Amino acid sequence: MTQADTAVVIPAVNEGDRIAATVAAAAGLLGVDLVVVVDDGSTDRTGKVARAAGARVVRHSRNRGKAAAMETGAEAVRLLDEDRTPRHLLFLDADLGDTARAAAPLVEPVREGKADMTIAVFGTRVKLGGHGLVVRVSRDGIRRATGFEAAQPLNGQRCLTRAAFEAARPLAHGFGVETALTIDLLRKGFRVVEVEVEMSHRATGNDWRAQLHRARQLRDVALALASREPVVVENLGKLLPKR
Fold it and tell me: How far apart are the C-alpha atoms of 36 and 27, rounded to whole Å?
């Protein structure tokens, strides 16, 4: 039997309709004995539904963003790991539903010591309605910074060792977290591997809310990249007043 060595962390905002299925599927993964849902200021029943489905739930009183939710979830796991070997951290999106059961291949390379972080590549693509611009910006930035060509650089389904996660802290703000994670860990010599999985989540639409979401995502990715570009950092240093 596989030893229980992995905790699932699920940042969630207003996902009351899908969170129960996601939690149930995640809890059924081989080697997973803990599912933590971080209710990031939801206004619906996300937290209550997740708890009823068997997850440990931590709630932010207000929405603090994805990166903050990831750090909160990882800290909850760390506190529960005080008297045991630290668990690997498997981050999953709240809207995966039943497809979260296909996340096992993300854990295997980490468990076997072949990778320090895995990134999911969805075998089944969903139409993302303009999302491609942000993907290109992230992919190009990661390539410039590290030489790594990421197929799906913004994919949030990732498994990390505890050591890799701690090496990447503090995480980049908001939606820049995935781009920054990849750059920071590669630069520090950690092994990053992409893994194809048959998972899917809700497609992004084209209404004003979706457009606003993409604008925020582009902003956060651009900020994460700017702070990691040597030329930008050098020039910013020249502009800042001397103390």
Answer: 10
